[in-house]
From TrEMBL:
<feature type="domain" description="Immunity MXAN-0049 protein">
    <location>
        <begin position="66"/>
        <end position="192"/>
    </location>
</feature>
<dbReference type="Pfam" id="PF07791">
    <property type="entry name" value="Imm11"/>
</dbReference>
<dbReference type="InterPro" id="IPR012433">
    <property type="entry name" value="Imm11"/>
</dbReference>
<protein>
    <recommendedName>
        <fullName>Immunity MXAN-0049 protein domain-containing protein</fullName>
    </recommendedName>
</protein>
Amino acid sequence: MKTNDKIKFQRWKSDFENKFCAFKYMYVEEQDEIDNGISVLDSLSEEILCEARDYDKLNQLADNLYGTGYPVVSDKLKSFLEKKIDSKHIEFLPVTLIDQQKRNIPGEYYLINALRVVDCIDIEASGVVWNPLEPSEIMHYEKGLELQESKIPENLKLFRLKKHSSTIIVRSDLVTEIEQTGFSGLYFPDAKGYMGVG
């Protein structure tokens, strides 16, 4: 990338693929800590469970699971990311996959906890609408998300957005590397213009 090229940022999402098993939205006791970029690896209060919707029919697992609500990745994708992202910026929380009969599904999977939260949303340009129940949190964007890129450290590959912490942002050069490896279940829509829903 040339130094004068505009840096792009994308959102970490999962992609539904018919041949792979889908999962139910996960409950995680440490949700508040995770949303605020706090490490919980050494203080998990209970096992993190992730239940499959249709494992009895589709027993193939993607590298990035669909439907979980959090990024949940295979051991293979975890190993790749560990080589690309500073360990101070990310941690991987072990997840136990179960089927609808609560039986363990073979395979090592991990919830991605992005440990960096960056205050870089252009509030005015994005047309931020605040959550009436949580006034410090963004509900959606009337004009579409705009980032103040000058506030994002150059070495930061993956981070959460302050005031909209459920959104994980990935630098586009890392997206390119991930996509070139052929991992399954991944989807990286542009961050710019995101309306805050979906």
